[in-house]
Amino acid sequence: MSESLEHLISRLQQEAVQEAESKARVIVSNAQEKAAAILEQAEQEKAAIIQNGQEEAAAYAERADAQLQQSARDVLISVRRGIENILKQLVAEAVDEAMTIDVLQQMLAGMAQSCADRSGDHRLEFLLSPRDKEKLVAFFASRYREKMASGVKIRVDRDIEQGFKVAFKEGEVYLDFTNDAVAEALSLYLRPRLAEIVKTAATGKGESGSSGSA
Q1: CA 8: distance to chain centroid?
Q2: Range of the domain at 4
Q3: Across the chain, how many H-helices and E-strands are there?
Q4: What pTM value is reported for the model?
Q5: What is the pLDDT of residues 91-143, one digit of tens each?
Q6: 108/29 same-domain check
Q7: Reduced to 3 DSSP states, what percent helix, strand and coil does the chain have, rounded to the nearest 5?
Q8: How far, CA to CA in Å, does 157 sit from each of 3, 140, 162?
Q9: N or C: which terminus of the chain carries fewer CB neighbours within 10 A?
């Protein structure tokens, strides 16, 4: 083989190798770029997943807090209503025990005396339960007969179970001293204080703690 032919073959081989290496470098470069793009996309997706997870966790925690607060309010409302019912029952029982015939006699006699001491038209009418009328009529008849004659009247109201009502000016004005009315008034009076007690218990700020910080 001549020298020129060998040189040609060698050059062709060299060019083929160079071309192969060039193509290999392009392939590697493309692969690296694709790999970098894939990694970048993966990082972005991971960051998005983490962000979504954090947002969902925060939203869940917020919902959980709201539900806990609502549950706490529901419990407090339920406890307050239960205490109010108990308080109302206790007040009603206390009023029933306190509103004895002797107490009714003193109250009615005091009102009758007050009206008798005033000048002008002081006609007064007591509305009593059927159960109490007989004893109270006998009491007034024996000790306040002159007041009965001067305009004090007593009659039965079957809607009254215990206690009494007072009518002025032929029934135009009423004062209600029945047990139910007195108990309701006392319950309404005590309810704001009860609300403060429940509020104090809910916030955990007792009277001792407030006095200590003063």
Answers
A1: 100
A2: 1-54
A3: 6, 4
A4: 0.46
A5: 778 777 777 888 887 888 777 777 666 655 557 788 888 888 777 777 776 66
A6: no
A7: 75, 10, 15
A8: 145, 18, 10
A9: C
